[in-house]
Design goal:
It contains twelve helices and seven strands. The chain has helices at about 15-25, 30-60, 75-85, 95-100, 100-110, 120-140, 170-180, 210-225, 250-255, 255-260, 265-270, 275-285; strands at about 85, 90, 160-165, 165-170, 230-235, 240-245, 290. The chain has about 300 residues and is mainly alpha-helical. The strands form three sheets. The chain has a three-stranded mixed sheet with strand order 5-6-7. Strands 1-2 form a two-stranded antiparallel ribbon. The protein has a two-stranded antiparallel ribbon with strand order 3-4. About 50% of the residues lie in helices and about 10% in strands. It is globular, with a radius of gyration of 30 Å.
Length: about 300
């Protein structure tokens, strides 16, 4: 190996240079460390106050938790929550979070129930209420730092929800249970996706003895809402004026569920507001159908 001459300015050992440099800077280091420590403590205190204020805002609730309605049965914990904290479809997630223990107790009941041993309507009530309670729990995992359910990755594919000892995703409950097994189109007005354009979350639990009437009311309530359910508009175009019926995209996404052995308009007829129903009937086939924009913003106040 050929040796090369070292630079006359280099120390004989790199360690010596490092030690010399460290000894030169040493007097200033304690001051710098104290200053840095003070800044870090101040930053940590600021973060603590920030997260504490967020947690306090999320868990603060000045509304009382109401008693569930008589006859709610296994759904009593959920009934009490939605009666207390859901008004005209607007959900008070802060109050739900403050009473999350009651929601968890309801989820535990769903995990233990055996739906296959129940009547058809009782099974439907379990799956509808379960879907809505699971969705609420999903939102509470991120509340209050969430503005839309679509911010949650794999939101409908997460197999986090237990009914009868078996785990399901929201997608499986909707499509493989409710739609595939029950063939009840009105479930689309009862299950709630935590979004403003979704049919309202009901302010009462669904129960078997009143299920048919509750589903009818859910359909009417949704179609009464001109911003997300249905709206009849008089519009002018190149070929003159024409009436156009704007419907929720739900009627496009799940159209086969509503048609079955009838047309979509025949299905809608009994649930449309009276004025809209009368005008649509007079127009017959001349009414054009279009779809409203879907707002995925959180349905919380």
């Amino acid at each position: 190996m050929v040796e090369t001459s070292a630079s006359p300015f280099a120390p004989s050992c790199p360690c010596a240079f490092a030690l010399k440099t460290a000894s030169h800077l040493a007097p200033a280091e304690p001051h710098r460390r104290r200053a840095l420590g003070a800044h870090l403590r101040a930053f940590a205190a600021l973060l603590f106050l920030l997260f504490a204020s967020v947690a306090e805002a999320a868990s603060t609730c000045d509304r009382p938790l109401l008693e569930p309605a008589a006859g709610s049965g296994i759904h009593a914990p959920w009934d009490g929550l939605v009666r207390s904290f859901v008004h005209d479809g607007v959900v008070d997630y802060g109050c739900l979070q403050a009473h999350e223990g009651q929601l968890d107790r309801y989820l535990a009941l769903l995990a233990a129930i055996k739906p296959e041993r129940l009547s058809r309507d009782a099974q439907l009530a379990v799956w509808i209420n379960g879907y809505n309670a699971f969705t609420a729990k999903l939102i509470l995992r991120r509340y209050p730092r969430i503005r839309s359910i679509k911010e949650i990755p794999r939101r409908w594919k997460l197999r986090d929800w237990t009914v009868g000892g078996r785990r399901y995703s929201l997608d499986e409950i909707e499509n493989k249970v409710l739609r595939a097994k029950f063939h009840e189109p009105r479930i689309h007005f009862a299950i709630n996706c935590a979004s403003k354009s979704c049919p309202d979350l009901a302010s009462a639990a669904y129960v078997a003895p009143r299920l048919d009437a509750q589903l009818d009311e859910a359909a009417r309530r949704f179609l009464r809402h001109p911003g997300k359910g249905c709206r009849l508009a008089h519009e002018r175009g190149l070929f003159g004026a024409r009436e156009k019926l704007y419907l929720s995209p739900i009627f496009k996404w799940f159209r086969p569920d509503f048609e079955g052995n009838q047309t979509l308009m025949a299905f809608l007829g009994p649930y449309l507001p009276e004025a809209v129903r009368t005008e649509v009937a007079a127009l017959g086939s001349d009414v054009a159908i279009d779809y409203l924009k879907y707002d995925w913003s959180l349905n919380g106040g």
